[in-house]
């Protein structure tokens, strides 16, 4: 079954629902049902956190080292500097993820606007 399988106007919406939302939503519901029963220091939860952290780190590394689109026009020094500034802000300003993201974004946008 592909995007072009059906020519009806509603098909793209059903395709997005079936291929995009449903598979991820099932795992969210399983997490909600099981999550209340798992101890925070259990071996399973430690593994899940490690895998989730590794996936996020991999995506960030890919965005920094092999960017696409507008990000590819920036220098690697700017991308690494923005990530480092965001991480430093995260550590120094109360370990809040939103602070790190905002600082990294400000550094990146500032660098792009200055053509660095």
Automatic annotation (TrEMBL):
<keyword id="KW-0812">Transmembrane</keyword>
<protein>
    <submittedName>
        <fullName>Branched-chain amino acid transport</fullName>
    </submittedName>
</protein>
<dbReference type="Pfam" id="PF05437">
    <property type="entry name" value="AzlD"/>
</dbReference>
<keyword id="KW-1133">Transmembrane helix</keyword>
<dbReference type="InterPro" id="IPR008407">
    <property type="entry name" value="Brnchd-chn_aa_trnsp_AzlD"/>
</dbReference>
<feature type="transmembrane region" description="Helical">
    <location>
        <begin position="46"/>
        <end position="65"/>
    </location>
</feature>
<keyword id="KW-0472">Membrane</keyword>
<feature type="transmembrane region" description="Helical">
    <location>
        <begin position="12"/>
        <end position="34"/>
    </location>
</feature>
<feature type="transmembrane region" description="Helical">
    <location>
        <begin position="71"/>
        <end position="90"/>
    </location>
</feature>
């Amino acid at each position: 079954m592909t995007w072009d399988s059906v020519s009806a106007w509603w098909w793209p919406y059903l395709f997005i629902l079936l291929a995009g939302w449903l598979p991820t939503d099932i795992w969210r519901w399983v997490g909600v049902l099981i999550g209340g029963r798992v101890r925070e220091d259990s071996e399973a939860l430690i593994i899940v956190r490690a895998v989730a952290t590794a996936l996020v780190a991999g995506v960030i590394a890919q965005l920094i080292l092999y960017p696409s689109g507008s990000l590819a026009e920036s220098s690697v020094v700017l991308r690494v500097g923005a990530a480092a500034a965001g991480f430093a802000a995260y550590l120094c300003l109360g370990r809040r993820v939103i602070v790190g993201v905002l600082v990294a974004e400000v550094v990146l946008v500032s660098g792009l606007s200055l053509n660095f």
